[in-house]
């Protein structure tokens, strides 16, 4: 005959275990609800400015400052019509094209120049490599405002102010140390046996870089492209400093034109243009983020 162990309080051990499991599930459920509530609160705080901007783009300018409601009292598309018409005699598409040229140029320049420089630092042994790499990393500690005046003087004497060249030339010369460092660290994780096998087959550095390294560097290249596009698209100080011609102005400069301290500011059109300026960034990220996720997911796979 089977006997059932009884706890001191009279309850069987089976009933006690079931009670403990119920209590554990109850605690886990409370923790899960609390965690999701916290995450939801954080999401609301993060997304509130974007929702407010989108809502304000449909409000008349007089209601944006005085009305904090997210729901427009009288929604209107007039703000988008004004934004698409442009400002100061310059159309919206001119601002858009200028920003797109700089953003795409930055992506192309950074992915080309920084990947080549990263390959040299990560795969080629040359005298002073570590010293040059440390010097490059040291430039990350140098504030941008320290070098902006000498740079402006150089570009001014070369008669390059009021062109896109000062904003793009550094991208094509691997002057962005952050992206070089990112790619170097990525390359160092790739097995050197790939290089050695290619050299045995007679491949040189150009063939190794183009046929082996670049395909494997897709996650690092996509990450660099996303950051380069967003940073260039949102850059305000650089275009403000170097671009004087209104026909060369970018989207961030156009947004500033809607705010006038001496007359009435058109906040409605500014919010509408801000929404339109956000669309390319979101599209660029949505198109390329799947490659980023795929690269991260396969980093631990070998062979």
UniProtKB/TrEMBL annotation:
This is Sugar ABC transporter permease. It comes from the Bacteria. It is a multi-pass membrane protein. The chain crosses the membrane at residues 33-54, 100-121, 133-153, 165-187, 208-233, 267-288. It is found in: Cell membrane. The keyword Cell membrane applies. One of its GO terms (biological process) is transmembrane transport.
